[in-house]
Amino acid sequence: MEKTWNNKAWFMVLPVLLLVAFSAVIPLMTVVNYSVQDTFGNNQFFWAGTDWFVDILHSDRFWAALGRNLLFSVIILAIEIPLGILIALNMPKKGIGVPVCLVLMALPLLIPWNVVGTIWQVFGRVDIGLLGFALSALGLDYNYVNDVFDAWVTLIVMDVWHWTSLVVLLCYAGLVSIPEAYYQAAKIDGASRWAVFRYIQLPKMKRVLLIAFLLRFMDSFMIYTEPFVVTGGGPGNSTTFLSIDLVKMAIGQFDLGPAAAMSIIYFLIILLLSWIFYTVMTSSDEQA
Known about the structure:
Elements: H1 9-35, E1 37-39, E2 45-47, H2 51-57, H3 60-90, H4 97-106, H5 113-123, H6 130-137, H7 148-176, H8 180-188, H9 193-204, H10 206-221, H11 225-230, H12 242-252, H13 256-287
Antiparallel strand pairs: 1-2
Helix pairs in contact: 1-13, 2-13, 3-7, 3-10, 7-10, 10-13, 12-13
């Protein structure tokens, strides 16, 4: 019997495709257009070719911001992934504690990014903030506005507080999907707690860990609102990530050509690194 295809579903998807084209593709084409042209105002444009891309790739400012971005993402992943797994392993699987823990874990994720930045900006102030005042009372010279180390610690702790819950919820979803028969077989064999985690829980969490890893990498690598609100990219340029530097270049300096070129390079770096992470993690999963 010959199989027939019903193409009516495409008409239902068409509005979504048009919306995506309007909200994503058209702005992207605009950025590409600016990246290969130069303007002196009055809506007059001049062909620049790849000059802006060459200038960005030879700029110490770009590589310094990229290095800060990579360092921040590595630290965030090194803390949030293991911490999320640890919390998920210790969450209750049955009883009234399950909804309570899930609600508590979800609360930080519901707070908008600019509000998170404002909360920690006030929280870390020495004069009125609880954290800043408490650390000063303990004799610690804490000031995230003037000290580079304090600024980085504040941003890292803030991000861990805000986004570890996402890793926890994803890992918890992977854990509760494991059939009870696996644990019963491990108990009969006398498997240790570490063996259960190594050979049962961790393999079953690989898919959700891949999602958590990619989401947290992309979010941390594109972070803008929180550090902009808390430190403004300072002290100096110590917390000026690529996103903040891009906004400064586009809006502050109104260098639309270099800003467009940087945004495309920024996008390609995220795409490339995400593809590398995905390929490595899926290939290791297939070999296992």
